[in-house]
Amino acid sequence: MNPVTELAPQLKQLRLSGILDSLDARNRQAIDAKLAYTEFLALLIQDELARREQKKFGTRLRRAAFRATKTLEGFEFDRLPSTNRALVHDLATGRYIDERAPVLIVGPCGTGKSHLAQALGHCAVRQGHDVIFASCAQLLASLNAARAVGTYERKLQQLARVPVLIIDDFGLKPLRAPADEDLHDLIAERYERAATIVTSNLDFTEWDQAFPGNRLLASATVDRLRHNAYCLTLDGASYRAPRQGPNRAKNALASTPKNIDS
């Protein structure tokens, strides 16, 4: 009788059915290389661990809800020569996560703030951390929706506990009640407990302007975000500049009215 036939239900019962994917190949390898039984077993266990880690990685990546596959390898540093590359690569190691420190990224539209934030989030996922990425508007809308169905505290604690929370486009829209209070509560819950990455078009000195109705709340929230934060300023040409067609310059000249001497 083929031993694999007997092994299959037993491996499933032990929740090791993934071993079946590589069992035949590893068995042939063991026979050809005359491996010891312990070496053969070690290979199967390594395969199972690799499969489980890959599955966990896929789950973390889906939960992160990144907009696209934005990695550090794809970030065009040459477009932003003044960017502190050393700091970016240091952040990529995940030290800020262990420190539970904020990372604040500012710059004009189209300079790659969201890309960089997601790239750091992707690094964190690869390092085994849970990450959530959302725009500031989406995040606050989810809290408001939870309030409407009586699950606000549960949602707040869920967001407060995630190791890396990425809040994109902070300050893009003015925060009105209760959104301003919700953001303050979330930042206060995460303060010195978990790492938060924030991107904004506003300069650091303008962040209080995102709270037009409550300057005291603005001060309390921004003060917590700035404390022990790593700050990055991106300054350069927009990635979203329109493409130059081959006839664009010619058409522009043709449409320019000529000066006619009187």
UniProtKB/TrEMBL annotation:
The gene is istB. CDD domains: AAA. It comes from Thauera mechernichensis. This is IS21-like element helper ATPase IstB. Keywords: ATP-binding, Nucleotide-binding. Belongs to the IS21/IS1162 putative ATP-binding protein family. Residues 253-262 have a biased composition (Polar residues). InterPro entries: AAA+_ATPase, DNAC/IstB-like, IstB, IstB_ATP-bd, P-loop_NTPase. Residues 242-262 are annotated as: Disordered. It comes from the Bacteria. Residues 99-232 form the AAA+ ATPase domain.
